[in-house]
Write a structure and sequence with these properties.
By secondary structure, this protein is an all-beta fold. The chain has no helices and eight strands.
């Protein structure tokens, strides 16, 4: 059980490389007890970063690569404390998308 103070580090190798032309999705099941600012998961590879996190009770995604950094923040209140949620960020085809419980809740162009 993760209590919010631990992390797992896995090297970006093989299929875990961040190659925008082939696409990548980071997803997790989360259940939070209260609003918080936290990184859920992030992949850093060769100067590129794709991250998924929380800001309060809003889902947050960030992509930094060849162009200007892109951030997406879902409207406040999307993550209900005490409830399980499937969260994801997808980078593919020149855009990043933020997903909550299978529905896209934000997207932006990214290069």
């Amino acid at each position: 059980r993760f209590t919010g103070g631990q992390s797992i580090t896995v090297p970006a190798a093989g299929p875990l490389r961040l190659v925008p032309s082939s696409g990548l999705t980071i997803s997790a099941w989360i259940k939070v007890d209260a609003a918080q600012d936290a990184t859920i998961a992030a992949l850093e590879d060769a100067g590129r970063v794709l991250a998924l996190g929380l800001r309060g009770t809003s889902l947050h995604a960030r992509f930094a690569g060849g162009g200007a950094p892109v951030e997406i923040v879902q409207a406040e209140g999307g993550i209900a404390p005490g409830t399980w949620h499937h969260v994801a960020v997808r980078a593919a085809e020149g855009r990043i998308a933020l997903l909550l419980d299978g529905a896209e809740v934000g997207a932006a162009p990214a290069s």
